[in-house]
């Protein structure tokens, strides 16, 4: 069984938002995004401005606005109050002077945006210094050549497990493993530089349990290091199926003593309700 994350009264909140398609934003949502744009920093606006595909710039603007709205909900701060730093591979994190312990991550697939925020109160650790959070949401796609992908990117134990399954089970397990592996490399902040062959998840170790908001939910997972030392960070992961198409993976790492698991919840919000929750910060 994996080690549990240090007991700091941590709460891990997952928020699921349905995004409009690139061509389906609509005038009302476009106007709302425009009115909320003053929440964004110059750095964020510059990153958004580099998008070239039609509709992508507005989609990225909505994603960043949703992130700020969710951070504001979790911290009782205003959506425009947050300032971000970026890791070597582009992972965003809040600047250290803005409270703690606290970490966040986000992911989107198809029309779903997943926002994850972990928070707690513990004077023993610095803000975001020893919490490593990564999330991934994946839509099961029937046209993806999963055989070519897992043979190239997955570790030997994961490949052997997939080979043992029939085609239907293999496709489900592939996207489960892909989501878990993505969540881990996002948690480390190293991205693909981590090397997808260097660690493995064993789905057979997962324990099914009931979790509100999920069709199926699994705990008892952790990444096993195959070509490097485990290090001082304790990792654990969770996997949940929202419906027959979408699955969510979360990986959390922490330094320190072993204790109770964080409280994990999943909520769903419409894009409009999440942004409109801060009407006092939206000019007319």
UniProtKB/TrEMBL annotation:
Keyword list (alphabetical) reads: Transferase
Residue span(s) of domain 4'-phosphopantetheinyl transferase: 133-250
Q: Does the keyword Transferase apply?
A: yes
SUPFAM superfamilies given in the database record:
4'-phosphopantetheinyl transferase
What cellular component GO annotations does this protein have? cytosol
GO annotation, biological process: lysine biosynthetic process via aminoadipic acid
InterPro entries referenced in this protein's UniProt entry, alphabetically: 4-PPantetheinyl_Trfase_dom, 4-PPantetheinyl_Trfase_dom_sf, P-Pant_transferase_sf
Under the heading Pfam families, the entry gives: ACPS
User: In Gene Ontology terms, what is one molecular function of this protein?
Assistant: magnesium ion binding
Task: Fetch the PANTHER family from UniProt.
Answer: L-AMINOADIPATE-SEMIALDEHYDE DEHYDROGENASE-PHOSPHOPANTETHEINYL TRANSFERASE, PHOSPHOPANTETHEINE TRANSFERASE
Q: Record's family?
A: Belongs to the P-Pant transferase superfamily. Gsp/Sfp/HetI/AcpT family.
Name of the protein in its database record = Phosphopantetheinyl transferase-like protein
* Organism in which the protein naturally occurs: Shewanella amazonensis (strain ATCC BAA-1098 / SB2B)
């Amino acid at each position: 069984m994996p080690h549990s994350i240090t007991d700091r009264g941590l709460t891990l909140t997952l928020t699921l938002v349905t995004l409009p398609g690139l061509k389906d934003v609509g005038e009302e949502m476009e106007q709302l995004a425009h009115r909320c744009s003053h929440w964004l920093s110059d750095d964020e606006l510059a990153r958004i401005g580099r998008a070239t595909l039609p509709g992508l710039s507005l989609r990225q603007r909505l994603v960043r606005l949703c992130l700020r709205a969710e951070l504001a909900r979790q911290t009782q701060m205003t959506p425009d109050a947050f300032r971000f730093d970026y890791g070597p591979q582009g992972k965003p994190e809040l600047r250290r002077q803005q409270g703690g312990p606290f970490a966040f991550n986000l992911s989107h697939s198809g029309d779903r945006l997943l926002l994850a925020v972990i928070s707690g109160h513990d004077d023993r650790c610095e803000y975001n210094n020893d919490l490593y959070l990564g999330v991934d949401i994946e839509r099961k796609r029937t046209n993806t050549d999963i055989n070519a992908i897992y043979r190239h990117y997955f570790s030997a134990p994961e490949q052997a497990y997939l080979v043992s399954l029939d085609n239907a089970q293999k496709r489900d397990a592939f996207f489960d493993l892909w989501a878990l592996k993505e969540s881990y490399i996002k948690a480390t902040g190293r991205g693909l530089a981590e090397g997808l062959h260097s660690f493995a998840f064993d789905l057979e170790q997962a324990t099914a349990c009931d979790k509100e908001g999920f069709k199926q939910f699994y705990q008892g997972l952790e990444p096993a290091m195959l070509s490097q030392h485990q290090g001082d960070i304790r990792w654990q992961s969770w996997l949940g199926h929202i419906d027959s198409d979408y699955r969510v993976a979360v990986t959390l790492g922490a330094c320190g003593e072993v204790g109770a698991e964080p409280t994990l919840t999943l909520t769903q919000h419409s894009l409009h309700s999440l942004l409109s929750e801060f009407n006092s910060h939206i000019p007319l």
